[in-house]
Amino acid sequence: MQRWQRFWEGPGGGREVLVIAYPLILGQLSFTLQTFVDRLFLTWYSQEAVAGAVTSLFTVWVLISLFLGTGEYLTAFIAQYYGAGRAQRIGPAVWQGIYFSLAAGLLVAALAPLARPVFEAAGHDPRVMAYEIAYARVLMFGGFPIILMATLSTFFAGRGNTTVVLGVNVLATIVNVVLDWLWIFPRGSFAGWGVEGAAWATVLSQVAGCLVYMAIIFKPEYRRLYQTLAGWRFERDLFLRFIRYGLPSGLQYSLEILAFALFMMIVGRIGTPALAASGIAFNLNMIVFMPMLGLGIGVASLVARYLGADRPEVAERTVHSAFAMSLAYMLVCGAIYVGAAGLLLAPYAAGAAPGSFDEVAAIATVLLRFVALYSIFDMMNVVFAGGLKGAGDTLYPLALTVILSWLLLLGPAYLLCVRGDGSVYTAWWTATAYVIALGLLMRRHFRAGRWKALRVIEAHAPGLDAPLAEGEAVAP
Questions:
Q1: How many domains, in total, are found in the chain?
Q2: DSSP strand E in 100-253: where?
Q3: Which of 211, 234, 257 is the last residue before a domain boundary?
Q4: Closest among 238, 240, 276, 425 to 356, alpha carbons compared
């Protein structure tokens, strides 16, 4: 009992990590639900529509995730300012994120005309290609609110007010689902917009989220405490420092998505059943894994806050507390992947013609055992990388991801399965080796402890801030 209390109580303990992280975890769940509903409605609309939307989203997300990951890194800046008691630097930091989001959104929109040649080069069925182009164009023209919503959320995540993030994500999900229903399908004289309706529903849901975030951020008490309005000026040094630390984080996210997209292309060369089974295994993996990205954001926020307060020992405890909880979670999920594979695959089999799903199910059952194994190390990567990023060590996770993705994942998978005669299981062994190595090396680098001396915020200088009056509390 005493051991449990030591783990659970106090700064950096399990309770604090869970309080900060659970709204972020549920927020990621709402995004997963949003994606599921999009695909479900488009499946009802037409098979070509859902195929085009899924392929298009994966392709566009490689680009948008670069800026999403960069914008979300503002969490570390806000948390370190908050931990250092420099509340009035938070508003200027948020504004640098707004300027970045605007520039990134304009760049993504400017690249929208490239959607047609990119998908034409893929050589897909003309009907699918038309949906791919339409979906991509809308998302790219609407890139600004998508990036901005992720960036504005850092004002709350960085200060530990994560329930607001959850509430806004739930609102965005509701808006998206309602607009999906209204805009995808034909109704009376309205012909329905199909995939374009789904894409616009996504964009408008992010607009709604941005408006709510901004209404809260510019409340009078936040304008006074955090300079959320007065800090609107562009600060070159702060902006460049944000890009310096944030861009590697966004690039890591983007390149990892690209690596797994290329991996799926390699698997597709093995055969259709192998590709279908791999897609199902990854989908079932994502249902469990995506919410845990919220835990990674929570870890980064707490580590940054305690480093800002010059308490690296508590920051380290935070990471170990998060990993202990995530390990227990993944062991339970792994047991389900292995022991209840038939139950997990039943919904996929229900909609298939009799006998047509048997081969796919047999392959997917084995692949879920790979998922059960590597998920433990995947969470190790998320938690320890979150700790490193909260400190400002964003180059190591980027370099490690790029090197290992080619050394252990894509290179061996190509040689063994495309140039050789390796099976789908051979390909998945390379993916498993990649994830295991990533988790172990990320943990090793964290334990070395060099991150404890890092800070992303500038050193305090007299006159830089307008300090709070003695005894004045900082609102969460």
A1: 2
A2: none
A3: 234
A4: 276
Model pLDDT for residues 221-240, shown as the tens digit of each residue: 999 999 999 999 999 999 99
219 lies in the same domain as 304:
no
Give one DSSP letter per residue of 363-394, joined into a string.
Answer: HHHHHHHHHHHHHHHHHHHHHHHHHHHHHT--
By C-alpha distance, which of 32, 43, 61, 55 is closest to 265? 55
Q: What is the pLDDT of residues 326-360, one digit of tens each?
A: 999 999 999 999 999 999 988 877 766 677 788 88
Residues 99 and 166 placed together within one structural domain of the fold: yes
Residues 347 and 446 in one domain: yes
265-323 pLDDT per residue, tens: 898 888 878 888 888 888 788 888 877 889 999 999 999 999 999 999 999 999 999 99
Range of the domain at 141: 10-234
- CA 471 to mean position of chain CA atoms: 38
Q: Does residue 466 lie in a domain region?
A: no
As given in the structure block, the two tokens for residue 306 are 């305690």
Check whether residue 141 and residue 272 sit in a common domain. Answer: no
Please identify which residue in the block is written with the tokens 């310096």: 244
Residue 3 lies in a domain: no
Do 271 and 330 lie in a common domain?
yes
Per-position b or e across 248-259, b if 16+ CB within 10 A of its CB: bbbbbbbbbbbb
- 83 within some domain: yes
SS3 content of the chain, % helix, strand, coil (to 5): 80, 0, 15
Q: CA-CA distance, 187 to 282, in Å (whole number)? A: 35
